[in-house]
Amino acid sequence: MQRDKNIFQCRERVVSMVRNQSQGMDADAMEQFMQAAIQEARQGLSEGGIPIGSILVIDGTIVGRGHNRRIQKGSAVLHAEMDCLENAGRLGYHDYRRAILFSTLSPCDMCSGAVLLYKIPTVVIGENQTFQGPEDYLRSRGVELVILNDGECIRMMKDFIAGNPKLWNEDIGEE
Amino acid sequence: MQRDKNIFQCRERVVSMVRNQSQGMDADAMEQFMQAAIQEARQGLSEGGIPIGSILVIDGTIVGRGHNRRIQKGSAVLHAEMDCLENAGRLGYHDYRRAILFSTLSPCDMCSGAVLLYKIPTVVIGENQTFQGPEDYLRSRGVELVILNDGECIRMMKDFIAGNPKLWNEDIGEE
Predict the structure, then answer these.
(1) pLDDT tens, B117-150?
(2) pLDDT (tens digit, 9 = 90+) per residue, B34-81?
(3) What DSSP designation does A39 have?
(4) Which of A74, B1, B99, B153 gets the most CB atoms within 10 Å of its CB?
């Protein structure tokens, strides 16, 4: 019973921490938005693409959705986050400053750079176990990162990388 | 005469330094490739766009050209360098590792991130007077930068920014 109480208190602290950090968004809402990003990743996979998805949220509303389109469009720049930002269209400084970017995978150098360019204050990351971008650098530039390490995000990437190592290396600029 | 000789020796040292640093490319070739990037910037301007151009060179051959297409395509991601990388198509690690990216303007956080993602070893920059991206960070990650501060590149940007301050701020994520 004491143990249960401790676990409960611990969970509350985590939820409270997340709420305070992430523009008032609670953990349940965060999980829900991550599901929308996972849906994008699944959509990409169903098109024969790399299963990474992303959404952009402003004031609790999804304003952009995207997924990696390297294969589908023969694209060198349309990682999920870039596709999402592109689909959200031309936004202004005050839009991006209220935005939260969700990505099923830790953003690479390019996508992290886009976050910095537009001064998006918060990035919620599905997982950083199969790949990790420049997270410390993002933090040093004032970006808040929330890392969920969601089991479904990890499984999708592990399966894809195991089956397509060459394509995966191309996507992250590795040999 | 002595002064002329000193100037000559000084120029030789600069050319030699550039040659040693930049994958064997000499200063004249570098100027010539920058002219191709400037041509892209002019093309963008003639389309009603932001006058920034970029080219990608591998083994002395232009393999990609691009210019900023924010206005033309309503794009949030097609800065000149990104457009250039996209137009160069899907390349592999060994291609990018032999590449030199030319840009008429110092690359922003996003475009610098793309350079880091693909491990492009050298970036030749037309100018960094009207805008400066994260140059020190690029250097700290091992990227060689050659900064020309070309008069035509500076003039194009100064004129554009003076006439379109709001649009320019949108392009670099400023208020």
Answers:
(1) 999 999 999 999 999 999 999 999 999 999 999 9
(2) 999 999 999 999 999 999 999 999 999 999 999 999 999 999 999 999
(3) H
(4) B153
Q: Which of B142, B154, B89 is nearest to B115 (CA)?
A: B142
ipTM of the prediction: 0.89
Question: In B, what residues contact A, Cβ < 8 A?
Answer: 70, 74-77, 82, 85-86, 88-94, 96, 108-114, 116-119, 134, 137, 169-170, 172-175
CA distance B100 to B105: 15
Interface test with B, best of A52, A71, A111, A116 (most B CBs within 10 A): A116
User: Are A119 and B173 within 8 A, CB to CB?
Assistant: yes
Q: Say which amino acid occupies B66.
A: G
End-to-end CA distance of chain B: 53
Residues of chain B neighbouring A88 (CB-CB closer than 8 A):
76
Rg (CA), chain A: 16
pLDDT given for residue A13 in this prediction: 41
pTM, 2 dp:
0.89
Tokens 């030789």: give the residue: B12
SS3 B52: coil
